[in-house]
Structures are given as structure tokens and as C-alpha cells.
């Protein structure tokens, strides 16, 4: 994550940058905001490095922003959209499928999910991916419906080989865990996995698009 942000900083020296973490690392977003304001900024734009507008984007980040706003009432705070539905992000996922040289009948987009995930957005993403790949693309969640295991079992009725695209920013513990889980539970099904988005620098375009949208508002 640090190298990804530093590379973005190098391409955009017109902005001051600070990286904040919601969990499991420091600094948190409040401390990151403090560091920017100490450098004299009058406006802070929060860019969620998240794919979807679920709990972190809808609740956690706004809470940090509210804390900062109370602390600095004269500073303008804004938040951009998340990255998952941007055409640049969808293109990275399509590239991952192409890079894997898969010869499969259909693809499954593997997503974290939660009760607040935007299902209509998922439909649009899979439709655009299907157009790029020329093959059917569906989606499934770890948390939420359709659930990953049940969706794979459903697809097994019509195919013996599935290409799975992890729609995550990077290959982490969760992705590896579910790769092992599926391979163990469904050993007769040939599952071909792509890499995740791997914090590809093409995602800079999605960030830039979101920044421009907020700066115009």
C-alpha cells in the first residue's frame, strides 16, 4: 500500500498526501488529517482505497471526517467515491483474466461482500466485464448473497471449468483462504484463479476520475 501511494504522489506533486489506515496499522485517518492541516491546507479530500461503498466508506470514514471537522471547523472536508465501478478498475480485472490465458466457459467475480454492498453496481460491473471478455460473468460474495460456495455449486451444473477473478485490491489472507477452501470442498471442479487487482497503477485513473468529480462539486 505504501509503495502504491508513493507512486501516486510522484505522479501528482500538485497535492499534499497523507496515508491513513482504518484498522491494523497506523496512522489512523485522524492523524493523517492532522498532518495535512499542520502543513497549512484549507481543504482535505479523503480518497477511500476501497472497491465498494460498504461500511468503511459509509460509516467509518465519515466518522473520522466528522471528528476532524469538529476539530478544524474552518477546513473543508470531502470524500470521493470508491473505486470498484470505475471503468479503469474493471479494465484491470479484465486484464487479469486475459493475463491468465484462461480457457474457461465462464467467469465468476469473487467479492468480499456485506449486507450493505451495492448489488446494482455489481450487476453493471459483471456486464461490462462480460463484454470485455466475451464470456458470461457472474458474481458471488463471501458475506452476502449469492454466497460463494453455493454460486460455484450452481455453476457446476452447467460447466466443469470456472475462471474466478478475485475482485480485491491485493491477494491477501482472505483470498488465499478461500482458494484453499474451494479446492478442498469441490475437488472435481476445475477452478482457474486469476490474480487480484494487485494495486495495479492503472487504478490511478480511477482515483483521478473520482478526484475530478469531487473537485468539480
From TrEMBL:
InterPro entries: CbiX-like, Sirohydro_Cobaltochel/CbiX. This is Sirohydrochlorin cobaltochelatase. Its EC number is 4.99.1.3. The keyword Lyase applies. One of its GO terms (molecular function) is sirohydrochlorin cobaltochelatase activity. Keywords: Lyase, Metal-binding. It is an enzyme of class 4 (lyase). The keyword Metal-binding applies. Pfam families: CbiX.
